[in-house]
Amino acid sequence: MSKEIKMKIDQLCLELEQVVTPGMFTLNMEAAQISNKIAALQKQCKHNFVDGQCEFCYRMEGDNNE
Q1: What is the Cα–Cα distance from 52 to 13, expressed in whole angstroms?
Q2: What is the pLDDT of residues 14-34, one digit of tens each?
Q3: pTM for the full model?
Q4: Which of 2, 3, 11, 12 could lock 56 by a disulfide, CB 3.0 to 4.6 Å apart?
Q5: Residue 42: φ, ψ to 5°
Q6: Alpha carbons 35 and 43: distance in angstroms, whole number
Q7: Which of these ranges, 8-12, 49-53, 61-65, has the smallest mean pLDDT?
Q8: d(Cα 37, Cα 24) in Å, to the nearest integer?
């Protein structure tokens, strides 16, 4: 399950890169929807933290935004 979550998040991150410009704040509904999908997947993940970051969903250890 966690590896599937990682694959989905990696794909969503690629999509996010297509709709935003790094270093520039953008009000973009598509980017917000992608970010919400990533957050939902992170909530489902069975985290395995390596050096403070989940190897599957990239959530930082101690991030209380669940």
Answers
A1: 20
A2: 999 888 887 877 778 999 999
A3: 0.81
A4: 2
A5: -65, -35
A6: 13
A7: 61-65
A8: 21
The DSSP code for 20 is -
Q: How far apart are CA 16 and CA 29, in angstroms?
A: 11
* % of the chain exceeding 90 in pLDDT: 67
Q: What six digits make up the tokens of 40?
A: 């939902």
Q: How far is CA 57 from the centre of its chain?
A: 6
Q: How many CB atoms lie within 10 A of CB 58?
A: 14
- Strand-pair category, 49-50 with 53-54: antiparallel
Give domain limits for the chain: 2-54
Read off the tokens for 64. Answer: 């209380």
What is the distance between the alpha carbons of residues 51 and 55, in angstroms, rounded to a whole number?
A: 9
